[in-house]
Amino acid sequence: MTDRKAATRQRWLEVLEQHRRDWDRPGSEPYWSPSLDTASRERLRAIQNAKLAAAVPFLYENSAFYRRRFDRLGMTPDDVKSVDDLVKWPVVDKREMIEDAVAHPPWGTYTTHDDALWAERGWMIFGTSGTTGTPRVFRYSQIDRQQWEWANARALHSMGIRKGDCAMLISGFGPHVWIWGVAVALARMGIAMIPGGGLDARMRATFVQRYRPSVLACTPSYALYLGRTMQEMGLDPAVAGVKTLFIGGEPAMGIAATRERVARLWNARPVEFYGCTEAAPHTGGYSCPASLGADGTVATHLMEDIGVWELVDAESRSPVPVGRRGLTVTTNLNSESSPQLRFLVGDYTVFDDKPCACGRTHVRAIGSFVGRADDIINLRGIKLYPSQIEEGVRAVAGIGDEYEIVLATEADGLDTMTLRVEHAAEPAARGKVAEQVAGEVRTRCEVRVDVEVLAPGTLPKTEFKAKRVRDTRAKG
Question: Could you read off the pLDDT tens digit of each residue along the chain, which spans 476 residues?
Fold first, then answer.
């Protein structure tokens, strides 16, 4: 390692350490890190600026991807010294990272983690599959793990998870950031865990009934699936002792009907994390005691002392002001291995930077995150999101948990959408149910769809992350 590379790395690690508070244990009952969680907007900006001043030279010296990008843009690290300077730096998207991974296998050069670091203090790899067949893999260090534990512990504390709780984590524990980040944070907090990987649904249901975890961590789809499995076994998830449904991986908190369905099934409070593999280890978004407003609107905090969060216009990629809808962009300021600079996460939301009723001062995403730009469906020139369709499906009483969106091309070349849903109505009454579903979807999406109503139990049960869209349209 060259002297300059080593110096910028050492400086970055020193800055990370300078801005940690309450590293080993919570500083108060309501807040893990009181001075950070309730810091003024001015103080949060000062922390971000101090971290940026160290992170940008570190990226330039230790990531060939970033060095080439700076040089190509005719910029130097001195051009980005504060949050106000970030606008000079064009947003980085997944396409650029994919191209880098293809050109520099197997790891790419978009992180600051190299082979020497991997040999010295490597921790774990996490990856994203993507649609191109080229995975983007991210190596993280033991220092990243420690930062992850701390940031996630702050967020879990915000959700009301405390000593005496027991969390059941339902995941295959593959190379996915969410469940690993939760596990290491719970370990730091001293909270007992039940690993639920490698079990089928009936065995998991038995574990819930027998060992009575107070926290259940899984995708929203799996929470529904597991609850229905318990009912089929003659068990009642609503009295199983689960107090907190810790959901992630899919939109749910911002879809009122889905959120309420899960909460009602388990008689538990749903909470969520929000983040991405590329800019870990950081919590990103997290629920607080005031996350659900009296009017039913949900809000998700974004931890600002460990990152800069922006919203940008979907077309121009230029910043949009607080209060306007845009796509999420993050600059991670909490990582040795992946401090990405203006990475496009790509979920639509609206920001509010006014203090929250919980006392936290960090910006909130109003309505949570319900539409990822990558998931957009273009049907006959009309752009819509699966989350909008789910809102329509869930609005009809009696519709089952499972549904499917089928896109097809007719013989005349017309693209169509068919929704396949389940309902217990008699065959003669299914036409009316189909009309209701089509009407609810049309109200939200301004598109006409066909609806096929099936008997309960017809569609495959969702395990883990739901794949609702089946696109069979003719290509090209």
Answer: 579 999 999 999 999 999 999 999 999 999 999 999 999 999 999 999 999 999 999 999 999 999 999 999 999 999 999 999 999 999 999 889 989 998 999 999 999 999 999 999 999 999 875 444 567 899 999 999 999 999 999 999 999 999 999 999 998 777 778 889 999 999 999 999 999 988 889 999 999 999 999 999 998 888 988 999 999 999 999 999 999 999 877 777 877 888 899 999 999 999 998 888 888 766 689 999 999 988 888 999 999 999 999 999 988 999 999 999 999 999 999 999 999 999 999 888 999 999 999 999 999 999 988 766 666 777 766 667 777 788 888 889 889 888 898 888 777 667 788 999 999 888 888 989 999 988 888 888 767 888 999 998 888 877 666 778 888 877 65
- Distance from C-alpha of 22 to C-alpha of 41, rounded to nearest angstrom: 20
Pairing of strands 450-454, 415-422: parallel
Distance of alpha carbon 237 from the chain centroid: 25
Bridge-based pairing state of the strands 244-247 and 285-286 = unpaired
Residues pairing with 246 in the sheet: 217, 271
Output the furthest CA–CA distance in the chain (Å, rounded): 77
Q: Is residue 123 part of a domain?
A: no
Look at the pTM and tell me if it is higher than 0.90: no
CA distance 109 to 120: 18
> Are residues 252 and 262 in contact, defined by beta-carbon separation less than 8 angstroms?
yes
In a domain, 108, yes or no: no
Q: What does the angle CA 439 – CA 403 – CA 287 come to, to the nearest 5 degrees? A: 95
- Go through the chain and tell me how many residues it has: 476
Q: Print the domain residue range for 384.
A: 377-471
Residue 367 backbone dihedrals phi, psi, to 5 degrees: 85, 5
Q: Is residue 409 part of a domain?
A: yes
Position 242 in a domain: no
Q: How many Å separate Cα 71 from the centre of its chain?
A: 32
Q: What is the CATH number of the domain that holds 406?
A: 3.30.300.30
Q: How far apart, in whole angstroms, are the C-alpha atoms of residue 13 and residue 287? A: 28
Q: How many domains does the chain have?
A: 1
